[in-house]
Amino acid sequence: MDRTSSIKSMDSEREKFRTYIEKTGVMSALTDALVHLYEEQERPTDALGHIKKTLGSFTPSVQHCHMLEEKVKEQEAIIESQRTQINELMGEVANLRELLAHVEGRGEATKTPSETPRTS
Question: Whole-angstrom Cα distance, residue 57 to residue 33?
Answer without folding.
Answer: 12
